[in-house]
Design a protein that fits this description.
This protein is about 45% helix and about 15% strand. By secondary structure, the protein is an alpha+beta fold. Mean pLDDT is about 85; it is low at about 5-10 and about 240-245.
Length: about 250
């Protein structure tokens, strides 16, 4: 085991363990103060890569430098464990403060459904989460919900429906904008056969957190638009034609 540009250089035998918060290195050589662990939290790790099935394992740090390790097949297990624990899903639903709150309003659960459904599918974390929060699919669902809300409030008059739809689109525009960088970030955050990009995963999670926050604000804005809207009357009735008697003078 070897460490570079770390608080305490390591060079000798050590064990590696991975848990939900990071990697722990426990030196075994007496020269390395055996038993004194070196803790590396996931936020401090840029990536974990491995050369071959049993090659050298490299833990690159975000602040610079890296730890390298080589050993038997158990070294590969460290990378697999880091993939599972290092790319776990963060808590996101707390950002939806309007959910169930005073800004509830009719249709609230339907509006948040795209994110809540994706969060359930993303429970396993990792690449499954990246697929569940597909930005294009989320955009399509939010746009569909806005259309549904406008059609529900203005089922009869197309001009009034279009005007309401435009105001609702303005309300959700910041949310849709927040989805844009999610696609590129998801590509970078996907694991590779030889590397786990933990820094890219953290960046994607931060962008996703912003999406949830924007969704919360968007619903408050949508609810305000709906509350202020006064549905128009039904379509104008066609004018009744008057019966007229016509005569013809044949003289």
């Amino acid at each position: 085991m070897h460490g570079a540009e770390t608080p305490r250089p390591l060079d000798g035998l050590a064990t590696l363990t991975v848990d939900a918060t990071g990697v722990t290195i426990v030196p075994l050589d007496a020269a390395l103060m055996a038993g004194q662990p070196e803790r590396i939290a996931f936020p401090a790790i840029r990536s974990i890569a491995m050369e071959g099935d049993q090659g050298a394992l490299t833990i690159a740090l975000r602040a610079g430098g890296a730890y390298t390790a080589s050993g038997d097949a158990r070294v590969a297990e460290v990378m697999r464990a880091a993939d599972v624990h290092g790319r776990a899903m963060p808590e996101l639903a707390r950002a939806l403060r309007a959910l169930g709150g005073r800004h509830g309003g009719a249709g609230q659960h339907a509006f948040f459904a795209p994110l809540l459904d994706a969060r359930r599918e993303a429970n396993a974390g990792g690449d499954a989460a990246l697929a569940a929060f597909d930005a294009d699919a989320l955009r399509a669902r939010f746009e569909g919900e806005v259309e549904r809300l406008a059609a529900e409030r203005e089922p009869a008059r197309a001009p009034a429906r279009r005007a309401l739809h435009a105001r609702l689109c303005e309300a959700v525009e910041p949310l849709l904008d927040a989805l844009v960088p999610l696609t590129e970030a998801a590509v970078a955050a996907r694991s590779q056969p030889s590397a786990v990009p933990l820094a890219a995963w953290s960046h994607w999670c931060a962008l996703l957190q912003r999406v949830f926050e924007r969704a919360d604000a968007a619903w408050i804005a949508v609810d305000a638009v709906l509350a202020a809207h006064r549905p128009s009357e039904g379509p104008p009735r066609p004018a009744r034609s008057a019966l007229t008697r016509f005569g013809r003078d044949v003289r």
